[in-house]
Amino acid sequence: MGSDRRFDMRFDNHRVVITAAGRDFGRTLAIQLADLGAEIFLSARSLAAAECVRDEIRARGHQQVHAFACDLTDPSSIREFASDAALRTDRVDLLVNNGSRYLEGPDLLSASDADVVDTIASGATGTVLTVKNFLPLLLNSDKPDVVTMVSACGTPGHQRSDAHDAFYAAKSAQAGFAEILSKRLRPQGVRVISLYPPDFDNADPLSDQWENTPRGAKDSLTAQSLVECVLFAVAQPRDCFIKAFHFEQV
């Protein structure tokens, strides 16, 4: 993190699973958490994409990072991801549900049936099955957290995005799942945290732009701020259950 930011915490004792970390915000979060000392278990739909990010992180001097292939539309792929991770760790402290296919187009007829199925499966079914398969490892942790990157599209009444109706459906499903999961897992000490960002700027965390991105009141939301929201929520004492972060749109 930049020296002018407010977070100097470390995550050396955290074992973190991040889905869809081969690019965009998943990659950003994996790099940032590795820099803070976490052991990272990252997945992407293709193993090559996951291994690319793994190698970027290792090049920064962090060797505790593992790459996996996981297709969030395929239940067997999710099970295999969790099983392979369990061969390398006996617990997971933080599961980040970052994976969800984006589908653009405000016209319902603009997408094929296959695109609709893929979008809803990756965001809705994929999230449910990822939590289900990683839950035993989460329950082995003394600090288990589940973070889901939902979207402003998962907020009731939201209509400002040009995302396809199927994307709205997937995000609404994620929101409903996180809501009930938060209540049902609290007795077991698992915190369930959801983020509902609008469109945001995701600068490459390995570029100079990461430190120089404008972050004023009139600027768009940034990946830097979303990372800090995740870090803030996870770093709170275990009596503090932050359920959700909602953001104003510029």
From TrEMBL:
Keywords: Oxidoreductase. SUPFAM superfamilies: NAD(P)-binding Rossmann-fold domains (SSF51735). GO terms for cellular component: membrane. Coiled coil: none annotated. GO terms for molecular function: oxidoreductase activity. InterPro entries: NAD(P)-bd_dom_sf, SDR_fam. Belongs to the short-chain dehydrogenases/reductases (SDR) family. This is Oxidoreductase. It comes from Streptomyces aurantiacus. The lineage of its organism: Bacteria, Bacillati, Actinomycetota, Actinomycetes, Kitasatosporales.
